[in-house]
Amino acid sequence: MFEKYISKTRKSRALYERAKKVLPAGVSYGLRYFEPYPFYTARAEGSKLFDVDGNEYIDFWLGHTALILGHSPPVVIEAVKKQLERGTHYGTAHELEIKLAEQVAKMVPGAEMIRFTNSGTEANMYAARLARAYTGRSKIAKFEGGWHGGYDALHVSVKHPFNIPESAGLTRGALQDTVVLPFNDLDGVKAKLKGEEVAAIFIEPVLGSGGAVPAEKEFLRGIREFCDEKGVLLIFDEVITGFRLAPGGAQQYYGVKSDITVFGKILGGGFPVGAFCGRKEIMERLDTTVYKRPHYSFHGGTFTANPITMTAGLATLKILKDGQLINQLNNLGDKIREQIKEIFESASVDVQVTGAGSLFSVHFTKREVKDAYAAFMADREKLVDYHLTLIENGVFFLPTHAGALSTAHSKADIEKLFFETEKYAKKCKTA
Ligand SMILES: Cc1ncc(COP(=O)(O)O)c(C=O)c1O
Fold it and tell me: Among 19, 40, 123, 187, fewest CB within 10 Å belongs to which?
């Protein structure tokens, strides 16, 4: 089954054998492993990844969807080069963190105050604590299939079967303090939360690893109203959708406001980042000059607001802020979703193509995909086969994961995606 891949990736295979001895599964993040072994990247530029065997891949994974300007965009690289000479890490207050915070505040509705972290996981973790501190409630709620990173209380019901712990080592307390809600089902949410006092509802406005499934607008509005009624904070995890769906992220795209918004990925301009932001009245709980122990909510970290990340983030947001490029990518996303669906349907392959803006995902199923359950019930073996076939032919999706678009993707890149998809669809038809 993997013959072609194996014959093209001999050096990667040797690296994998070496890697396995020092890195569990030969990788630094379990999801980067795929069968028979991952290729190892030697360099990246624009829309392309190049592996150690000299293979070239059009990259639709884009560093976990972080690279909306593609790999190493010259504007960002130039800014970072200059900053490298001024210092890589200060560990003190500096102006770049103010500039990036001001830029985020200009772009994102309700982002009066911001704190930076080094990852989306951290940002969600601190957001959960802040919500608890602000409301005085312990429990939090999240959606089935929602991925918010590896923090215990949010690392619940991510993958099907949803009732099995996602990891060994999670405490009973963490699991008991998290209420799991059905996505795109307002009545279901209300039923689940009847009699519960939760500090916050965490939601990815478009489920990412849960299948690139967008929340319905009415559903998000309903959740907003419910939160207002019950004094629950609504937390948008916009680690994927932030600065991608619109300059102001999902809040702008949907016209629904959150109380706290969490960012990551794009905000770092290709460097490690996370952030959480919201109204002053909420964010002030992090202010040690206003709140003393035990009333303030802790956040911090050695590398927070690293000047390299701040520089790259600023350069990136300046390019995205007027929304022009984002609109272009969103239009291209519409076209891709439509065309991929058409390609499979004309080969009589049952398919649903989900996503929003410049995110898209294929599900081999007849059933409409409105939640993560439906995404997991689709034929995932076929999805792996489709993605591996694309990889063998120079188009990279991390198997089973959604694709993302960048401004570096060319017309030829998109044509190649369609061409290879058509070849695959024809193969399915004759099989
Ligand atoms: C929606 C969402 N939230 C949080 C995270 C965690 O971010 P990080 O991997 O930077 O810790 C991710 C990562 O993929 C994500 O997609």
Answer: 187
What span, in angstroms and rounded, lies between the C-alpha atoms of 232 and 220?
Answer: 14
Structure tokens at 289: 């000059």
DSSP character at residue 401? S
> pLDDT tens digit string along 160-175?
999 999 999 999 998 8
Distance 133 CA to ligand 1 centre (A): 23
C-beta 121 within 6 A of ligand 1: yes
Residues of the chain above pLDDT 70, percent = 100
pLDDT score of 174 = 87
Query: Got the DSSP string for 354-376?
Result: EEETTEEEEE--SS---SHHHHH
- Ligand 1: distance of its center to the CA of 263 in Å? 9
Question: Residue 431: what pLDDT?
Answer: 79
Would the CB of 261 count as within 6 Å of ligand 1? no
The pair of structure tokens assigned to 330 is 């969103």
197: left (phi over 0), alpha (psi -120 to 50) or beta: beta
The number of beta carbons lying within 10 Å of the beta carbon of residue 41 is: 16
Tokens at residue 34, please?
């795929």
Q: Phi-psi bin for 277: left (phi > 0), alpha (psi -120 to 50), beta? A: beta
- Asked whether 61 and 396 are in contact (CB, 8 A), the reply is yes
Rg (the chain; Cα; Å): 21
**Reported pTM:** 0.98
- Verify whether ligand 1 is closer than 6 Å to residue 118 (CB atom): no
Tens of pLDDT, residues 257-290? 999 999 999 999 999 999 999 999 999 999 999 9
Our answer on whether the CB atom of 65 is closer than 6 Å to any ligand 1 atom is no
- Which residue do the tokens 């990136």 mark? 316
Identify the three-state secondary structure at position 215.
Answer: coil
Give per-residue pLDDT as tens, 185-199.
999 999 999 999 999
Ligand 1: nearest atom to the Cα of 122: 11
Whether 145 is in the pocket of ligand 1, judged by its Cβ within 6 Å, is no
| Beta carbons of 121 and 140 less than 8 angstroms apart | no
At residue 208, what is the residue type? G
